[in-house]
What we know:
The chain is α/β, with parallel strands linked by helices. The protein has a single domain (about 5-315), classed as 3-Layer(aba) Sandwich (Arginase, Chain A). The protein contains ten helices and nine strands. α6 links the parallel β6 (about 180-190) and β7. α3 crosses α4 and α9 (about 260-275) packs parallel to α10 (about 295-315). The model has no long low-confidence stretch (mean pLDDT about 95).
Amino acid sequence: MSSITELPSGRQSFLNFPAQRDLAALQADFAVLGVPYGRPYSHDDCPNDQAKAPDAIRSFPSDLDVQYTLEHFDFDLAGPLLAGQNVRVVDCGNVRHDPAEPGLHYRLAEQAARQIFMSGAVLLVLGGDHGIPIPILRALQVFAEPVTLVHIDAHLDWRDEIDGEAEGYSSPIRRASEMPWIKHIVQIGMRGIGSAREEEVRAAKAYGCDIIDAYEMHDIGIPAVLERIPTGGPYYLTIDADGIDPTIMPAVMAQTPGGLNWPQLRSLIHGLVAKGRVLGMDFVEMAPTHDVGGISLIHAERLLCNFIGASIRHGHRQQPLNG
Length: 323
């Protein structure tokens, strides 16, 4: 193939930021990358509704609202999004996909993420189901220091395999635990019933995961949650949309009451960025056709803007890596 990525349908970039497909020549502070396709458990799973999310997020808000987002005072950030700084945000498009070769998408996603990390840009990944962080986490190997993984989800995601597939949406944290460069895992928001059985919970605890279920999170509050995340970073943040309360994020396949509300999610993002350098994040598992009145897209846009704006205000702009 001539390129790792291709332009999305509809609007060509998130918030109309410049499109950048030549990752080898990437010069940016923040790079948005769509990774629409997870490894399916069956032919019925591909494509799934979550594969539509990257382009759905890009299509919101309207062109007029984009200018408001970029130019007007944002009370979430105490100023305009880019804080009046010379910050370059680009959209690298979507990783290419070939239905006849499911593994290709992951290989290209890892290659794209490695190039983006090597360029010095902070990576924002739009998924796709929760299988897609697996190749992104593999790309974190380019950093010379171990990484703390912060995981927001209703589910534990520690299955070793389902129907012989070990890299699907129920397995990303199990796969992360096998990567030597992931030094610590904090899992936040677990609740209800998912694919985990008692053996997966035992395995996660045996590994050393700090599991803060939704009820403990609500009881102790986000400041106490942040205290349990090792200080200094670097961090990688993976956010499953169903980790957020469905009253504000209804566009998910497994609605479960009791997740993070918006003030909690915002506080967690700002607090994590304040603790240390966040190398990147992904937002996955949003199912656009399940949305109600665009409320999920509103919160997705706010989440991404808060991450970018908070990162700028804490000076977490990286340098290109050697080698």
